Amino acid sequence: MTISDKVEFQEDLRLPNGGVLPKSDAFTDSADSSEFYDDHLVDSKELEMRPLNMDSLKGDGDEDDSTRKEKLLASTPELEESDGIFITSKPWNLEDWLYPPHLPRECQLLRPENIAIPACYLLVGILQGLSGPLINVYPLDLNATEAQQVTLSSIRSLPASFKLIFGFISDNFPIFGFRRKSFMLLGWGLAALSMSALILTTNLTLSEEEYEKEDGSMGTQTVAPENAPSVQFLSLTLLLFGTGFWMADVMGDSLVAEKAKLEPIHARGATQSSCYSYRFFGLMVASPFSTLLYSWAGPFYVISLLALLPLSTLPLVYMLGEVQHGEVASTRQQCREIWNTVCSRAVWQPLAFVYLYNVLQVGNSAWKQFLKTTLGFTNVQLNLIQNAACVLLYLGVICYKYFLIDWSWRLVYVVTTLLNGVFSILQVLLIVGITFGLSNFWFALGDDAFAEFIGGIQFLPTTIMMVHLCPHGSEGASYAMFTTVNNSALNLSAAFSTLLLGIWDVSKEALANHELQGMVNLTMLTTCMQVAGILFVGLLPRTKEELFQLREKAHGSSAIGGTIFLAITFMSIIYSITVGVLNIVAPGWSGES
């Protein structure tokens, strides 16, 4: 029986985009029907764009292709043919948009029992967008040193290095029988409580006062009150906020990993892609809003939102549908699964590239201070750069998804790394005052924002690779481990950037006096380190097929590789924490200002 015969006679099938293939009593082979559905109805886009196979339209009789095509189209009103392509159509309706019929109920995210999951991802994006501009400028208003600014920027995300721990705790120690719901409630509660403590115990107002510049002219500067939060207390509240934030995020990731197993073949990835779209949307909307709110009313209202918004999602988490007192794998079993995974060459080799590459992405920690002190950028301008970066980060993800997804992973990293090096060198031109007629702000905006665009392009190849590395049955714990590797490398990179501040004089005083040779040297050094990441691109497979082939090569499974992999990961976490704490409690310990 040909494909066209199956389309014409099988039981009613609801297509991914809403079309329905008609029922016929002449065909009742359910196994054959199911096989056709799995093999041919992969997703709506693939179905709509698949060329018509003329050979498959030939029947057992003497009918020609055009006759059989006409019969098929006549019997199926939802099917239209254009240039050899079948297209299904159905009037849009709200119910199918809210609850996609091609997905099982468990994967329909907007149902009451599931809506906490997209709400969690949306809230993660909103809180990232609100807190980014705040952390970008508030430490400057508190007269934090360069080292403290770097640490404050990274300390909120530091608990992301403990994702694996959060995952194991929720797997092994359910609260009231719930592995995800209870810890999501706990995480959002902790995030709200930490910001509430900041509001209730300190003065978050700011004032403007005039001062006389060295040239005799008058200027204005932001002044914090005496009972403003200290850098140490602000760091503590941000650390607690980040702990709750990332704990809830891990629970959301675990729920998505569980539900992704229930997706039909034609809709694989729909749940994950939808959740990330909510997250990036929240980030883009909240970031400019936070900038305007901070410039208009100061940090108090921004921090108030950070305290209130996590509470708003608690009723949705309470309604979350989760099996109570479900089967819990033992810690020994989970550790054995993780160990077997990291010993595979298909895991430790590509993740070695991810780790080494991210460690070398060392930024210029004095850059923000240079923009504010030397170039006189206002808080609004600094936050506008942050907002543009959020938008271009999303555009980078979209660019890869629609234009670069067929590129090899190696080529993506080589091209984007070289482009990033070019734009990093442009920072030197800004330092020495060569902007080709553009204002300092627009020159800096293009430079900093484009770096985020490149980061967005590199985001999806990494996540795609990590998803393919997850073994069946332990996707949640494995994905948490892989993201821990990524996050620990980024935190170590931030720690390195702090250490480099002591090599040349890039203190606030030197920048105020326009002594900029140290800034030039530091920018050149960090640029060379970032570009050096492509030296390890040979460790990265070109495609997912080549990724799986690594298991068949020499040392396809290596206990030594797994041991080194885990040792470096946890040593990086410990080092990052140590440097971060020292920067807060003993600023200048490594020689930086």
Automatic annotation (TrEMBL):
It is a multi-pass membrane protein. It comes from the Eukaryota. The chain crosses the membrane at residues 185-206, 233-256, 300-321, 342-360, 380-404, 411-438, 450-469, 489-507, 519-540, 560-586. One of its GO terms (cellular component) is membrane. Residues 47-69 are annotated as: Disordered. InterPro entries: BT1. The keyword Transcription regulation does not apply. Pfam families: BT1. It is found in: Membrane. Keywords: Membrane, Transmembrane, Transmembrane helix, Transport. The keyword Transport applies. PANTHER family: FOLATE-BIOPTERIN TRANSPORTER 1, CHLOROPLASTIC (PTHR31585), RNA-BINDING S4 DOMAIN-CONTAINING PROTEIN (PTHR31585:SF5). This is Folate/biopterin transporter.
